[in-house]
Design goal:
- Helix 5 runs parallel beside helix 7, helix 7 runs parallel beside helix 8 and helix 9 packs antiparallel against helix 10.
- By secondary structure, the chain is an alpha/beta fold.
- The chain has three domains: about 120 residues, Probable inorganic polyphosphate/atp-NAD kinase, domain 1 (Rossmann fold); about 100 residues, Tumour Suppressor Smad4; about 210 residues, 2-enoyl-CoA Hydratase, Chain A, domain 1 (Alpha-Beta Complex), CATH 3.90.226.
- It is elongated and about 90 Å long.
């Protein structure tokens, strides 16, 4: 018995009615008919508790649909067509697309022509036109975290779209291409008449075996659409990805990590703050200026919310963003040569540019008004202090003396935490910080109605 599939938009009554009529007609001709809706091919939207909403490619094919099916019929608009192609692509089932909606640019025929079109297909009087599709995958390190099939295009951009970002793009074995733009579009020939056309890309006939990469509002007159063979894999990395964010996210998720120690490379500094000269040369817009502190604060926020104690082993200079990094940790160990400070005001930057909210919170919690005075003195004076003074005002928990260095002292604190838990010095500091953060979150929620989580972008091979 020959088999046919029907994929329809169950939100539209006319599509439901036509699907039933076709099913009855084909069963009368002796066909086996499988019905399903296009909902299974819809990607959906991200939610705060579920940031990645999709169906894995291996689970896309509807029940009853397989390679033995002669063809499928799609009843709906362009959205249903895109979903249907995604559902049946693993089986390679040819589709007759019928417009029952308002926008039917991708459909082959209309309802008033359906009887003649269906009769021609049943008689074998048709041609199959192959259309290229994209398999898009998002990888985090070596783990596949998201994948989807698409007929039109893949768009990669920062949220909100009005913010520029940098991409490093590899086309097969060719040298990487750097693009600065609001986003990039990777399009098939079918999608060349959609978003990519509006972004300035060329129209490509479906039979040409190519893909095109189109930057969205590029930051260079030299950035134009690239057309290349569809046999080439495309890998897109965020060129300004922050390794720190990736590292702390991994540490936060790792179940075999009970505590984290952060320290600097070498002996000159803990973590360097922003290179002001480089900032002045490379940053020209407000959006670009926000990237650095936003990325830093994203990483610091992950450290603060990490459900395990974090220790800063400071063996050198910790100024600006470096001091903010140390303050994001639950426990700070410093060598006598370490120095702390917020020099932004002396560099003609706003005192809060590198993030200075943690210093007042920490010192107020420990010493009240005296702590607030010391914090404001550091921020508004733009000066730095040595490790001994930092320990005196409560900024440093342990000042290393003797043969041990900061890293060895930090490791000793972690070993004591593993052995004694919340009764150790690190355990007590961790518990106190977590309680303070919960209080801050509750206060923000009562004042603003809740918190908004940030989303990050990760490497996208496709």
């Amino acid at each position: 018995m020959p088999k046919v599939g029907i994929i329809y938009n169950d939100i539209k009554p006319i599509a439901c009615r036509i699907a039933q009529e076709i099913e009855d007609k084909l069963k009368g001709y002796g066909w086996e008919v499988c019905l399903t809706t296009g909902m299974g091919g819809i990607l959906g939207y991200s939610q705060p508790h579920r940031p990645l909403c999709h169906t894995p490619i291996s689970q896309l094919v509807p029940p009853g649909f397989d390679q033995e099916m002669q063809f499928g019929i799609v009843l709906g608009g362009d959205g249903t067509v895109l979903a249907a192609f995604r559902q049946v692509a693993p089986c390679g089932i040819p589709l007759l697309t019928v417009n029952t909606g308002h926008m039917g640019f991708l459909t082959e025929t209309y309802l008033n022509q359906l009887p003649q079109a269906l009769e021609a297909v049943l008689q074998g009087e048709y041609l199959v036109e192959d259309r290229a599709m994209l398999a898009v995958q998002i990888w985090r390190e070596d783990a596949l975290v998201w994948e989807a099939l698409c007929l039109n295009e893949m768009v990669l951009h920062r949220e909100p779209l009005t913010s520029m970002c940098h991409f490093e793009i590899e086309l097969g074995a060719h040298a990487p291409v750097d693009i600065a733009a609001d986003g990039v579009i990777l399009s098939t020939p079918t999608g060349s008449t959609a978003y990519s056309l509006s972004a300035g890309g060329p129209v490509i006939t479906p039979g040409v075996p190519v893909l095109q990469l189109v930057p969205i509002c590029p930051h260079s007159l030299a950035s134009r659409a690239l057309v290349f063979a569809d046999s080439e894999p495309v890998t897109i990395f965020p060129a300004n990805s922050t390794p720190l964010v990736l590292v702390v996210e991994h540490l936060a998720r790792a179940e075999d990590v009970v505590a984290v120690v952060f320290t600097g490379q070498g002996t000159a500094s803990f973590v360097a703050g922003a290179d002001i000269r480089q900032m002045l040369e490379e940053i020209h817009t407000r959006e670009e200026a926000l990237v650095l502190p936003n990325n830093a604060q994203l990483a610091f926020g992950i450290i603060e919310r990490m459900n395990k104690p974090c220790v800063a082993a400071v063996q050198g200079v910790a100024l600006g963003g470096g001091m903010e990094f140390a303050l994001a940790c639950d426990y700070r160990v410093a060598e006598p040569v370490a120095r702390f400070g917020q020099p932004e005001i002396r560099l003609r930057l706003l005192p809060g540019y590198g993030g200075t909210q943690r210093l007042p919170r920490l010192l107020v919690d420990r010493f009240g008004e005296t702590g607030l005075r010391d914090a404001m003195d550091l921020i508004l004076g733009g000066r730095s202090i040595d490790a001994e003074k930092a320990a005196e005002i409560g900024l440093v928990d342990v000042l290393v003396n003797g043969a041990r260095d900061a890293l060895a002292e930090a490791h000793a604190a972690v070993r004591a935490y593993v052995k004694h838990g919340e009764h150790s010095a690190l355990g007590k500091a961790f518990a106190a910080r977590q309680a303070a953060i919960r209080t801050i979150v509750c206060n923000r929620g009562s004042n603003s109605g809740g918190r908004r989580e940030a989303a990050t972008a990760h490497p996208l091979p496709g």
